[in-house]
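Section 5: illustrative case.
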């Protein structure tokens, strides 16, 4: 999730539900005992403000856009646990 500098003219997606999204990913990582294999963290700007909040999954570099708190569990279960990307949220192929 991007976090713009304080006083920036536009709100960052990190402020627009981004903190809650990262927190929920961290909860799911802990609940599934994956702390040594999976990490959730903020990132610098993806420059897709109109598509945010953005989530990128590595190493595949799959980018999800318009992610809501409700989408986090689906991304985690489908993509992280089962290695099946969530097509309806993908911004890249």
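Designed sequence:
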């Amino acid at each position: 999730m991007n976090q713009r500098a304080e006083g920036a003219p536009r709100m960052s997606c990190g402020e627009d539900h981004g903190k809650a999204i990262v927190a929920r990913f961290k909860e799911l990582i802990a609940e599934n005992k994956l702390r040594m294999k999976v990490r959730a963290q903020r990132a610098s700007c993806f420059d897709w403000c109109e598509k945010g909040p953005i989530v990128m999954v590595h190493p595949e570099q799959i980018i999800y856009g318009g992610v809501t708190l409700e989408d986090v569990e689906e991304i985690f279960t489908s993509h992280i646990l089962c290695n099946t990307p969530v097509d309806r949220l993908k911004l890249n192929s």
